[in-house]
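hey so i finally got around to running both of the ones u sent me last week. sorry it took forever, my laptop kept dying halfway thru and i had to restart like 3 times lol. anyway pasting them below in the order u listed, first the sequence line then the structure token line for each. didnt double check formatting much so if smth looks off just lmk and ill redo it

first one:
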Amino acid sequence: MKLKSLCVLILALVILNSCDYRTPSKDRFEKITKIELSDSINVTEDRFESAGPDYGLFYKFDLNENDCLGFKSKMEESEG
């Protein structure tokens, strides 16, 4: 019985680790900056870099001309 319980526990852990519960990059960016991105903006890269007790989040995303102008105006609104 103990072996069966152990096998079930190990299987459950393997299944849970194989799922990606990470918050999507776009959602994380919007929450941190409080700037809502349009659906046409695509986050192409995000990186988490650890440096001791500090860390950095780096985002790279594609903008077309309209997205760029909208993003710029939203940044100006949030600053002032």
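and the second one:
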Amino acid sequence: MMGQGQEPTISPAMAERVKVHLDAEERSLIAVLEAVRELHRSLRQLDGAALQQALQYELAALMEAKQMQERRQKLRFDAANELGLSPHEFTLGVLAKKTSGELQQSVAASRQKLSEMAAEMDRLNRQNHAMADQSTAIIRGIVSHLTGTAGQGESYTAGGVRDEAHVGSLVNYGG
């Protein structure tokens, strides 16, 4: 029970649930991050077989992360309810401010680790995107030279959307 002027607190059972969940969140994000690292390595090495394997690994990690997201939403709702907050207001930062002791330290440490991993994942995904764009531009250039459309510039549809060069059987059949 709370006295007058006392803020809601999180129950010991909920505190344990939060700690267990944060450990699972870290493991899940580590798996996704490792998949993104593998994808990055395979793109840098231009290794098609490794790229296919990395994409499969990433897909499996992302499916687990989707399940983790569902569990996170449930925990967020339950913990926010205990603290008298809406689930939208409930964040790790808020939880760290509203708790103390071991739970506060655990939440702060997890928040830091998760933030660092998310930043690395963002950086790697940006680099992966740039490498994929560069590869696509190279292929587009080769195709335009082979099809005689080099130097003609880009064209756009009536709706203002960039009209992609048709690659057709040249790439599909190695013609």
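quick thing i noticed on the 2nd:
Residues 166-175 have pLDDT under 50 and may be disordered.
anyway thats it, ttyl
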